[in-house]
């Protein structure tokens, strides 16, 4: 085994960068492989084009004849680009993307064949995808599920395949994927936000939620990554001693990008350009060999698809460069983990960012309306927000003093805090003309100036306002953004519906003017949302205590965090907003909890295997060398030998102690797993895995890592942290 490590190292050290030269301007290749609006305009009849645009903008149906036309145009466009296959591309509840390729090719008798692709094949397919998790939906109702074209996310070509973004639903209508509830949540927030935006501008017809994700990842030499069974099997290292140098010098962060990594990034970015993914920013992150990539924000559904596609493409491009992308939230202990900040806002079809301050008092009141409603939504649903980012891998990061804690809070900066304070003092009921003028000039009117020099940044906040958007920072690097985005947009939708009702009631019953009513409702929201606002250090212990006093949840583990997804309150919320019915919500809960169990189970098995079959035999081998040495010394020096063999004998003992501990713990862990596996109730099983099995990982790792320090480097089979993190 140690030969694998050294061979991998030799190869890694001798690798040359795969040099990428860009011949075209990026703007010229952008969207080249996307069946986008321009392509459609060129290749569709006017009727067909109008029909697709209407489907995109208002969700109207596309009839069969038009679908045939679109399919045929798509096929011609794709064939001209050398495409041979098509696939309905979807996002099952594994969180990854799925595709099953079919050739355009069809036989027509007489030994002849043609390329064929009709409206039927475009609009709907029935993949035999019965092995995807469905949380019992399909067992209970109907065995089959189908995929249906989502025209709001354009078809694209990857390699030689035409990919058609689709939803995945059961024949009974229940969603079997992440996209369907997201589309419903976006619909809900559109309708609720449009109604509120109409207070300020009657011409608003649609509000789009926007998302700009920032993807963090590690980039490791492929050979080195493959030499570690834990990375191969679980995406992270389950053991490994910290190197002498980690990230303490901060010499990697924003530093010059290593050549191999840079060429990978260029290659990836070119591919992204062709796929219409508007990537813009790249830089080194805090940990060694950690990087970040960020696009220009897009409409949320498209942004989610683009992020899912990106995660897939990253892996493929990396292998061309003999690199491996690690998307896991915590691939290495002791250095920073990876997240995926979700920058989110709401924008109108009239071009207004509802979370961006405007130029007039009225537009700033609009800003404050959406700003305060968002805060209120998080305040009332903090625990659900936490549930939306829960996973076995993200548990390592949240609350590990490097990432936002498991406690949700909102950071808005000193100046906006002062604005809210002023608004809190607004008179109950009708406002005097003086108060109105004063508010408009001195409070609401001052907002743009305030934000211009708002350099206030708090890196420790999970949900921070950053000038013209909120940034949800606790999302995991590996996560499908659909899940947190479904939750965020649902709770904001619900909040805006409630807000509109309250304002309308005040206008009607108390005879208040529109702006008076808005001020009145916002004042109450500010009072009710104080608990969620926090400007201090989110990593500190004091905050944990303070948050507890405030009654905020602090669910550190996934089994604890997920529960709230199926609370009565939240089942009602999803149902009321038309996002998920009870069956769909419960199915997702079950799938996520089961996924948690499987992850910990696999990690336990892999760790047990490495500890027993790699670490212990190596330690024994080295111990034998020491024993031989001690016997030799005894032969040489007789009873005097201890003078020369004391150190060795100490190490021999230490090794035995660690071996003993590892063996005992691995046995104990295996027994605990067996016990857990026998528990029928999946929630209780998850708790066992979380609180009984997982804690033993640390003990096993501790002794293995100590052995790594004791054993001869030449013998050690597992590629070490310094080699994984500093080989460039
Ligand atoms: P930062 O200083 O946090 O890096 P940036 O302005 O560079 O801020 O933006 C970071 C991310 O936020 C980018 O991915 C960007 O596309 C996204 N973003 C900017 N404006 C919006 C918006 N209105 N809605 C959603 N995302 C946005
Ligand atoms: Mg950011």
From TrEMBL:
InterPro entries on file: Gln-synt_C, Gln_synt_N, Gln_synth/guanido_kin_cat_dom, Gln_synth_cat_dom, Gln_synth_gly_rich_site, GS_Type-3, GSIII_N
Q: Name one Pfam family in it.
A: Gln-synt_C-ter
List, for all copies, the residue spans of the domain called GS catalytic: 178-615
Which positions fall inside the GS beta-grasp domain? Answer: 84-173
Question: One GO BP annotation here?
Answer: glutamine biosynthetic process
Q: Which GO terms describe its molecular function?
A: glutamine synthetase activity
Q: Which family does it belong to?
A: Belongs to the glutamine synthetase family.
This chain belongs to the protein called Glutamine synthetase
Q: Which organism is it from?
A: Aquimarina brevivitae
